[in-house]
Known about the structure:
mainly beta; seven-stranded antiparallel sheet; 29 strands; globular
Amino acid sequence: MSFIIDDFNGDADNNNSSSVVDNTTGDGGVSGPSPIDPDNTVMNIRGGDPWSRELFAELSSGGEKVTTVVCYGCEEGHAFSDPGAEGDFEWRYTGGTFDASEFEYFTIDYLEESGPIEPGGVVELYFDGVLAAQSEPLPGEKTFLTLPLLISDDSVSDVTIRVDGVEGLNASIDNAKLVIEPIPSLVFGTPEGDFFDTEVPDEKLFVGDNQKLYTSSGNDEVDVTFAPGDNRIDLGSSDDLLYGGTDNRILAGSGDDALFVGSGGGNNTITGDSGMDQFWLVTDPGALPTEENVVTDFTSGEDVLGFGGVGTEFGFEDLNVIQDGPDTIINAFEQDLARLLRTQASTLSESDFAFA
């Protein structure tokens, strides 16, 4: 079981980003309110009074400013500082109460943004002003933190997530949760048909966040559409169904597999392996992946590239099939949808595509 502190998703009534900027060293920092979505923060739906979020930024040395942001466009909490600046960044939650004694760990994504991140500093969690979890000095790269809780409290009414002591910071946090068990790095399926949906994880705790999943044999179904990504997914043998999301490495294995990668952020690397595989590049033309997906082993005459939700007026003649060095780019709707590695565009024909 997990308990979401904040997934930084947009507020139902206010989708604008919120930020607090401090540009005066030693003034004690500045703070400001930020709307919070009760549908995306479990503290708001476990009963009691509604919770609210407040942002805090403090420039402690160097540079000109530091900024704390809740960005509803990319659904992350940002912490920015100028080169050479050092600051403290906080996301504070108050309003109701909850029982934290049933949880053992605090997990959070620490994400690299544009530009280098200076290593150092820590992520900290506070319950009612008391340190509840603390990381080791942060690396200068993306990482997933699993921190044991230092205290047990059955009535918490004030929660603070803090990032401090990092110079030249340009990073984000996301998916802040309390969990009973640490998230495993490796998850196995069974010889039977398994179902893994990261929105409703079972006792195996496959949440789709920098994990390895081996489903084994059986007709399996895996849905990582809304997962954070950076997973390695091996579907094993049999005829499997996968709904891809963002930044995953997918090995379909033997069998006739259906791989839907037309939603989420894209940037998946997909190997169909043996069998007649379907690579569905589009499922909704109004919600395309933001980055192209890569197919490593498309086999003309055996595999198929699918376009779903396009209607009867869309067909092969609406595609741009472009040779790019040794690879082929599949372009439609004014963007690149897929890169087929080591594939000659001249070998592709209408029979290699499906439209629905």
